[in-house]
Amino acid sequence: MTTRQYSLPAETRAPTGRTHAYTVGETDRLLVDPATLTDDLATALETGEVAHVAVTHHHPDHVGGVAACAREFDLTVWARAGRTDGFTAATGVAPDRTFTPGDVLPAGDGIPVVDTPGHAPEHVAFEAADGFVAGDLAVAKGSVVVGAPEGDMRAYLTSLRRVVARAPQRLYPGHGPTIEDPTATCKRLLGHRLDRESHIAAAVEDGATTLDSILDAAYEKDLTGVRDLARATVVAHLEKLAVEGRVRWDGERARPV
After folding, report:
1. Inside any domain, residue 185
2. First CA to last CA distance, the chain
3. What is the tens place of the pLDDT at every residue in 155-186?
4. pTM to 2 decimals?
5. pLDDT tens profile 199-252
């Protein structure tokens, strides 16, 4: 049985205004990232084919329907081990079972869990037979927000490289169209992040010290409506550069090394 997509309305900053949920597996299927419980999704769950529910990460636009789906259709609720408190706070329901990356969830023929942190620290993907259900790891067009305080740019780039190495058939993202060229898309996102990083490092080298001055120097486009996201992204890049010893960053001011 192939992966099935359900496009659900959600309060999200994504341009589509919707989040995709997916069902995967052959028997005792797994539901991933239900933003809400719609009539279409309820009809699918009424068949009894779906037995489990999990999420790629805990952001509100990916978890809003977990409690209702679990309650109304008696689904086994899974959460990442070590992140159960965050899961419960986000979903309003405690998990029945936990997983760690590398585990295979007992959904039919088994769904391997792939570690893909960066957008969020707990972020994972689920390896279906026909591709990865990838949450907010990647998008077909544009880029993914990786912003402080919970976004980790070093982890995000590692996650993209991990997906390139595993070469899935396709990526099923949380927002936007299915990604039919995962390797090219992940390499594009890697290039985009490294290009932005080079602009940020150059801004610091040229004397920009405050977050806003670095932001203005590093972005050559109108940031109306997304300036807060861009600021958080710049911080994530500065944290990465500081860990790598390429700039000094104390949380307020940056200096060249």
Report:
1. no
2. 54
3. 999 999 999 999 999 999 999 999 999 999 99
4. 0.95
5. 999 999 999 999 999 999 999 888 888 999 999 999 999 999 999 999 999 999
Half-sphere exposure of 47 (CA within 13 A, CB side): 10
Cα Rg of the chain (Å, integer): 19
**Residue 154 contacts residue 45 (beta carbons within 8 Å):** no
Q: Specify the number of domains making up the chain.
A: 2
**3-state DSSP assignment of residue 74:** coil
The answer as to whether 51 is a domain residue is yes
Q: Within the chain, where are the H helices?
A: 39-45, 60-63, 66-73, 84-91, 153-166, 182-205, 211-218, 227-243
Kindly indicate the confidence band of residue 1, based on its pLDDT and cuts at 50, 70 and 90. Answer: low
**Domain encompassing residue 94:** 4-180
Q: Token digits for 170?
A: 């396709």
Q: Do strands 131-135 and 50-54 pair parallel, antiparallel, or not at all (unpaired)?
A: unpaired
